[in-house]
Design goal:
Blueprint lengths: L1 H47 L3 E5 L5 E4 L1 H7 L3 H4 L12 H12 L4 E9 L5 E12 L5 E10 L1 H50 L4 H23 L12 H11 L4 E5 L7 H4 L2 H22 L4 E8 L2 E8 L15 H12 L3 E7 L3 E9 L1
Parallel strand pairs: 6-7
Antiparallel strand pairs: 1-2, 1-5, 3-4, 4-5, 7-8, 8-10, 9-10
Length: 366
């Protein structure tokens, strides 16, 4: 009886051992199948990716090369694997080796903009992200890189930069026309008046010349601002009456400046220095037109806050003109003024009656 019991016990242990072995083998087989499935998924993902995905050892020798890399670099996988950085231009090899060295230390480098070379020698701007490849023990054994063609992005950036330069050139052109050119015209009128004063009132010539010299210095400073890429001095709304009066005096205009009521102190916070400068340019152009064309005896400049608007009116009693008041059909200076008004988010209008005069009205939102 004891022998039979011992035999049964040994048989039970053997069955458990076999069952455990079978379970372990099955588990390993399942894990192996799962691993193979994951590898298959990853392989399919790499091959179907739209970006060039490559890997290499720490010397730069290629270990893998997906389909997108074949298309992108025009090297087949057979041609590329085993070669040392075949897609890197010679002048950029130090940069590429530096990236590999950082990956070897476990670092991931994202979105480096650089250049790669196709098999036909054509250079392509790319964005490269590189990362370390780890083995099962967590050791870095290789480096992997994803390269994306950014030719279209670079072309768009260059186009945007070109447009920005053109816009800046136009802005400076407007500033020169509406600022420096108008100031020089006012100075020329002052100097012409000095010739008349030589015979009628010689004692007035020296102070008039001193004013012309001071104004020329101001013009020189304005030009320096443009050359330096600055927008001019930091003007405030409170500076407008004095600047306008000085400019009108240089044009020998009988200009009456009206501030209907004290402007609120919040205006300086609402209107930037550039906005105030644009307003001043509009006034300069308008007053220059009055001096050149209107034959006006008097000019009124009115600045007021009307609800949520800042309103500027420049009205003369001159000849006016016959024809369209459509600014788009008028001269370069008036188009500049309209453009400045639009830049400020406002609108510009002209009212004129032949023989009675002209009024320019600027309305700006606050």
């Amino acid at each position: 009886m004891q022998a039979r019991a011992s035999a049964q016990t040994q048989l039970g242990c053997s069955r458990q051992s076999v069952a455990s072995s079978v379970a372990l083998a099955t588990s390993r087989a399942d894990r192996h199948a799962t691993a193979e499935q994951v590898c298959g998924y990853l392989g399919a993902l790499l091959e179907s990716a739209g970006d060039a995905i490559t890997s290499g050892d720490f010397t730069g020798k290629m270990l893998s090369w997906n389909h997108a890399a074949e298309v992108f670099y025009a090297y087949s996988e057979k041609e590329a694997v085993g070669e040392v950085l075949p897609m890197v231009p010679e002048g950029l090899l130090p940069e590429a080796r530096s990236i590999i060295g950082r990956c070897q230390k476990g670092e991931t480098i994202r979105n480096i903009e650089t250049v790669r070379r196709r098999s036909d020698g054509r250079l392509i701007p790319v964005s490269v992200t590189a990362a370390p490849v780890l083995n099962g023990s967590g050791e870095v054994v290789a480096a992997c890189a994803i390269s994306r063609d950014i030719s279209a992005t670079k072309a768009l950036r260059e186009q945007e930069l070109k447009m920005a330069r053109l816009n800046e050139r136009d802005r400076i052109g407007m500033d020169l026309h509406d600022g420096v050119v108008q100031s020089l015209y006012a100075i020329s009128l002052r100097l012409e008046n000095c010739i008349t004063l030589l015979t009628t009132a010689p004692h007035q010539v020296p102070p008039s010349l001193e004013k012309a010299i001071a104004e020329l210095k101001d013009v020189s400073q304005d030009i320096t601002h443009y050359v330096d890429g600055l927008n001019g001095s930091a003007l405030t709304v409170k500076d407008l009456p004095g600047r306008v009066a000085s400019f009108a005096a240089g044009l020998h205009l009988d200009a009456h400046i009206v501030i209907e009521r004290p402007l609120s102190s919040e205006l300086d916070a609402t209107l930037s220095a550039r906005s105030v400068e644009n307003i001043l340019h509009i006034v300069r152009e308008a007053l220059t037109n009055v001096a050149k064309h209107s034959q006006a005896r008097a000019t009124q400049i009115r600045l007021s806050e009307q609800g949520d608007k800042l309103v500027l009116s420049i009205k003369d009693d001159g000849a006016g003109f016959i024809g369209s008041c459509d600014i788009a059909k008028l001269g370069h200076g008036l188009r500049n003024m309209s453009h400045r008004a639009q830049t400020l988010g406002g609108c510009l209008a002209i009212k004129t009656t032949p023989g009675i005069g002209t009024e320019l009205l600027l309305e700006l939102p606050l």
